[in-house]
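We now fix the convention by which a protein and its fold are recorded. The integers have meaning only within a learned vocabulary of local backbone shapes. A complete example follows; check for yourself that the lines match position by position.
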Amino acid sequence: MKKLFLFSFLLLNINAFAQDFDNLMTKRYLTCNDVTLNCTSLFIDYYSENKLDTANYLLQYWQKKCGMNEAIQRAKILLSLKENNYNDSILDDRIFDYIYQYQYRVNSQNNHNHYSVKINNRGLYYHYYNRNFDYTLYEDFDDFLRDEFDKLKLLFDVKQIEYFWCEVFGKNNANAFLMLQNNNYNSIISTRYQNILVKNSKISKPHAAFITGIWVPLGKLNTLGLHPELGFQLGWKKRKMNYDFTIMLKFLRTPNYYLAYRKETNTFEKTNHFLGGYIGFDVGRDILVRKKHELQVVGGIAYDGFDVFEKDEKLGLKGVSLHSYNINAGLAYRFYIKDNFYLGLKAKYNVVDYTLNKVIDLTGHTVTIHFSIGGFGWLGW
């Protein structure tokens, strides 16, 4: 009983000392996290009460304490649209960085929703990762601004820059950059975007694609029949020019037997064996680019050929192959699912001569039709 009394006495004294120390904690350091938490909440209140001048002063205070960030820029644009006095002068030099940051964060938030739990009515993702986004990651603030941008969008024409900002920061932000491509707004934002496109077009982008298709022989070669092809491309794109090394494999036996010369026996023999390859360098130029569509004129040179006899170890006979130059030209179409990922269709006419090494006597040229899945940045995905 005495031990219990002493323990209670010590506990009370420790608690008393703790309260004394609490009273001594007079120095305060207002962190940017605290400022942002309070400013986002106050901004919602002032804006809702139509105290727009006070909301503007609040943003100036917030910027002074924490520096310019994506959330402040977004709030400034919203206020200018609300007051119908938008001007490019409110845009920070890092405006495109802010747009990318906002869209990345929105996408990240959506991707985390399937396992996010709530902490004080705030998503777990917002709660823990706000420091990665300049302390601007507050769900209520984002939701409020997004709703307000959507409301203001109804007041503007689709060709106005104000409408563009409502799209960027509203709920339907996926088409924002497509709008910049299709509209030349009377705004510095259009000029900067075009400068970015020009700058990016000067950079060589690595390209890769998987290819499948059919090989179609013409003339006397048509006795060989159609053959499937598989292959890939590696190269690069610079501005409107495309440069690629292409490797293809064509296979399956021919539907008809054909005569081929075997030097070892000095005889022509029937065969339906067929296994071919293509190694070439292709060049393409964009001749039409519209939104997600791209049309190219293409051409190339290559080494082309196929096997006509397999090796026969029992009879001591070697395999026999033939080869030809390949000069080709055609058209290619790409549909971009994303900026760096596309589905393609290409048709080329190939000038060949498989009679060069006198293995077969079948003259004619070929047509190739290829389907491709490709992209930039090494496969683009």
